[in-house]
Amino acid sequence: MFNEIVRDVYQIEVPLADSPLKATNAYLIKSAKGRHLLIDNGFNQPEARRSLLESLDALKVRLEEVDFFITHAHADHCGLTSVLCENAASTVWSGGEDSAIIRETMLAPQRADSFLGLNDYWDGIFLYMGKHGVPRAVLEKLALDHPAKAYSMDAPVDFSIAGEGDVLEYGRFRLRVISVPGHSPGHLALYDEREKIFFAGDHILSNITPNIASWGKYFDYLRQYLGSLDKAARMDIALTLPGHRVVIRDTAGRIAELKKHHAGRLDEVRGILKGSARPLTAYAVAAQMRWALRYRDWEEFPAPQKWFAAGEASTHLLYLEGLGELRAEDTGDLYLYSCNC
Ligand SMILES: [Zn+2]
User: Fold this and answer.
1) pLDDT-based confidence at 110, cuts 50/70/90?
2) What is the pLDDT of residue 117?
3) Predicted model pTM
4) Architecture of domain 2-100+154-256
5) Is 132 helix (H, G, I), strand (E, B) or coil?
6) How far is it, in rounded angstroms, from Cα 143 to Cα 147?
7) Cα-to-centroid distance, 37 and ligand 1 (Å)
8) 199 — phi, psi (to 5°)?
9) Which one of 2, 75, 82, 302 is CB 3.0 to 4.6 Å from 55, fit for a cystine?
10) Among 58, 54, 101, 69, which Cα is nearest to 199's?
11) What DSSP state is assigned to residue 298?
């Protein structure tokens, strides 16, 4: 399924099975002569592949004529890349940091003493979330079927590295690469100055809030993300084309809403820590946060939702730690947080 958003720019909806996100938006920049560019793709799932190929076929675009751009390393945006460029000499643009992540997820070595029988990369992520208090049973469940793991690329790809300020020319568009880290460590967006179109990946989404969670590294990704929101707010954007859901006409308004959301979350986390007599893990904080999900209580949350909630709680805790508002203690087994008040 696709539709033409502006002349020569097609939004292609790629279905995501097993995901509350339901679909990823890939964008095809069609060129009258020369190569086309496909921005993002989808999970490495047969139905996603079939649907995307049907759309390209209906658009009379042959895979050999397509180059690819990956906004970030998450499998719902790049899982199909190796399958799509299997038989073609396509250029695959990706940021340095996120292409290294994609490579590591596939090629990291496995050790005999591995935590959950995964390779070093995934082990690092699961160990990290374990220290944030995610119980072993949740980790074990996710080690089997975490969508990011199950539906990611299955063969290495030769990436062409793109970075801030590079310009990619496809069809009638001059696309400037904009670095907007936060949702992933090296997230990239593309911007066409003439038409003021911003291909945002998951940096700015319309009716859902991009998940800001760290992937195994004790690093203040929320601060980085808010900085990248400010960067987009300073740009002259008429139309934002996001990686999920509908297009955004009022980008400044949406950025303000996202910042308000995180300010509210920070207040909520402050309140939970203030009300607690003992230090808490991110997982324990997440269990007390409000979530717009249809489950009766925290115990009913499925493993992936608990994992993502703990991830989100952890980024807000690290941000408050950076502000000096709370104390963090690494006991070796757990990260524990308490109010500095
Ligand atoms: Zn996404």
Assistant:
1) confident
2) 79
3) 0.94
4) 4-Layer Sandwich (3.60)
5) coil
6) 10
7) 19
8) -85, 105
9) 2
10) 69
11) G
Compute, in angstroms, the gap from residue 25 CA to the centroid of ligand 1. Answer: 9
Task: Say if CB 42 and CB 54 are below 8 A apart.
Answer: no
Q: If you search the block for the tokens 């757990």, which residue do you land on?
A: 334
DSSP-derived letter for residue 248 is: B
Closest CA to 250 of 239, 265, 260: 239
Quick check: 188 and 179 in contact, CB under 8 A?
A: yes
Centre of ligand 1 from the C-alpha of residue 77, in Å: 6
DSSP code at position 21: T
d(CA 178, CA 131): 33
d(CA 206, CA 215): 24
Grade residue 261 by pLDDT with cuts at 50, 70 and 90: very high
- Per the CB < 8 A criterion, the answer to whether 183 and 203 are in contact is yes
Q: Tell me what pLDDT residue 11 has.
A: 98
User: pLDDT at position 76, please?
Assistant: 95
**Over 80: is that where the pLDDT of 38 sits?**
yes
Residue 209 CA, ligand 1 centroid: distance in Å: 11
Distance 243 CA to ligand 1 centre (A): 6
Rounded to the nearest whole angstrom, what is the distance from the C-alpha of residue 338 to the centroid of ligand 1?
Answer: 32
Most confident of 12-26, 130-144, 255-269: 255-269
DSSP 93-115: EE-HHHHHHHHHHHH----TT-S
Per domain, the residue ranges of the chain are 2-100+154-256, 109-150, 269-339
Give Cβ neighbours of residue 51 (< 8 Å, ≥ 6 apart).
Answer: 1, 13, 14, 15
Ligand 1 mean position, distance from CA 250 (Å): 20
Tell me what pLDDT residue 121 has. Answer: 85
d(Cα 3, Cα 334) in Å, to the nearest integer?
48
